């Protein structure tokens, strides 16, 4: 059995950057956002169910899901969001479990943005939280997504609070600093996880 490290953090905290740093040590990374796209690729039961409910208008000309149209449909009809979550969340969870079972590195990273909100740390052995000050989150997200501060505040309000994530964490990387500090923090945790992973092999 592979040891599973859950990786989460609020928007703009640098989860992807941290995951990439672990990837440099050849650690298998299972990213919920990527899995979420895979379960609605052409030919999947997920996409077939969406087309059955919303019609072929929800597809782009190449047969893939029109995500912006789907987002609009959810925005217009809130019950659709619940239906979609009920359809896709079990599929995403099963696919993540299958990916974990196929992991070959001493431990693997399971990257889930809303891990604490959806109580998915039950799928992990340890939870690593990437933590940054709120003003850093806002600045980074504004720069990355070209949105105003009030838009970022709304997203923050919909996520678990910083304290809720920290309360759930086994390990914390503070990502307010520069890339050298981040490299050092990841290197240190990598060594700890390698030592811990021996108990799971």
From TrEMBL:
<dbReference type="InterPro" id="IPR027417">
    <property type="entry name" value="P-loop_NTPase"/>
</dbReference>
<keyword id="KW-0963">Cytoplasm</keyword>
<dbReference type="GO" id="GO:0005524">
    <property type="term" value="F:ATP binding"/>
</dbReference>
<protein>
    <recommendedName>
        <fullName>Dephospho-CoA kinase</fullName>
        <ecNumber>2.7.1.24</ecNumber>
    </recommendedName>
</protein>
<feature type="binding site">
    <location>
        <begin position="12"/>
        <end position="17"/>
    </location>
    <ligand>
        <name>ATP</name>
    </ligand>
</feature>
<dbReference type="GO" id="GO:0015937">
    <property type="term" value="P:coenzyme A biosynthetic process"/>
</dbReference>
<keyword id="KW-0547">Nucleotide-binding</keyword>
<comment type="pathway">
    <text>Cofactor biosynthesis; coenzyme A biosynthesis; CoA from (R)-pantothenate: step 5/5.</text>
</comment>
<dbReference type="GO" id="GO:0004140">
    <property type="term" value="F:dephospho-CoA kinase activity"/>
</dbReference>
<keyword id="KW-0173">Coenzyme A biosynthesis</keyword>
<dbReference type="InterPro" id="IPR001977">
    <property type="entry name" value="Depp_CoAkinase"/>
</dbReference>
<keyword id="KW-0418">Kinase</keyword>
<dbReference type="Pfam" id="PF01121">
    <property type="entry name" value="CoaE"/>
</dbReference>
<comment type="function">
    <text>Catalyzes the phosphorylation of the 3'-hydroxyl group of dephosphocoenzyme A to form coenzyme A.</text>
</comment>
<dbReference type="GO" id="GO:0005737">
    <property type="term" value="C:cytoplasm"/>
</dbReference>
<comment type="similarity">
    <text>Belongs to the CoaE family.</text>
</comment>
<keyword id="KW-0808">Transferase</keyword>
<keyword id="KW-0067">ATP-binding</keyword>
């Amino acid at each position: 059995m592979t040891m599973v490290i859950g990786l989460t953090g609020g928007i703009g905290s640098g989860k992807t950057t941290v995951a990439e740093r672990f990837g440099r040590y050849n650690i298998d990374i299972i990213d919920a956002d990527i899995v979420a796209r895979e379960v609605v690729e052409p030919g999947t039961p997920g996409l077939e169910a969406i087309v059955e409910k919303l019609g072929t208008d929800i597809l782009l000309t190449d047969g893939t899901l029109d995500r912006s149209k789907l987002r609009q449909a959810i925005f217009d009809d809130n019950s659709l969001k619940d239906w979609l979550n009920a359809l896709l969340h079990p599929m995403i969870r099963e696919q993540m479990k299958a990916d974990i079972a196929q992991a070959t590195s001493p431990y693997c990273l399971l990257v889930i943005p809303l891990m604490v909100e959806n109580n998915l740390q039950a799928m992990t052995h340890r939870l690593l939280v990437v933590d940054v000050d709120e003003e850093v989150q806002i600045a980074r997200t504004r720069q990355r997504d070209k949105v105003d501060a009030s838009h970022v505040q709304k997203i923050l309000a919909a996520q678990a609070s910083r304290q809720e994530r920290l309360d759930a964490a086994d390990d914390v990387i503070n990502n307010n600093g520069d890339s050298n500090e981040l490299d050092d923090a990841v290197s240190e945790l990598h060594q700890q996880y390698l030592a811990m992973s021996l108990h799971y092999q």
